[in-house]
Amino acid sequence: MCDECKRQNSAQRQRRNYHILIAIFLVPLPYILISLNLSHASIQKSFQALSIP
């Protein structure tokens, strides 16, 4: 392979790795947000239970 082909291949591989990283970060995001929302709601409930004598 010529140097230009090698360069293009490595650039494509890096771009693919970048996409995989983005996917790895984006896929769990909704689950993380949902769990944060749930924990936030439970924290609010516990605070309300504490504040009510």
At a glance:
The chain crosses the membrane at residues 20-38. This protein has 53 residues and is an all-alpha fold. The chain has helices spanning 3-26, 29-51.
Q: How would you describe this protein?
A:
This protein has 53 residues and is an all-alpha fold. 89% of the residues lie in helices and 0% in strands. The protein contains two helices and no strands. The protein is rod-shaped, with a radius of gyration of 23 Å. Keywords: Membrane, Transmembrane, Transmembrane helix. The chain crosses the membrane at residues 20-38.
Supply the number of helical segments: 2
Number of distinct beta strands: 0
Strand content: under 5%
What can be said about the biggest beta sheet?
none
Roughly what percent helix?
over 70%
Please write the string of helix (H) and strand (E) elements: HH
First-to-last CA distance: 77 Å
Category from helices, strands and their pairing: mainly alpha
Uncertain spans, ≥5 residues at pLDDT below 50?
A: none
Shape descriptor: rod-shaped
Mean pLDDT: 87
Q: Compute the gyration radius: what is it?
A: 23 Å
List the helices and strands and how they pair.
Layout: H1 3-26, H2 29-51
Identify the notable features of this structure and list them briefly.
single chain; about 55 residues; mainly alpha; transmembrane; membrane; transmembrane helix
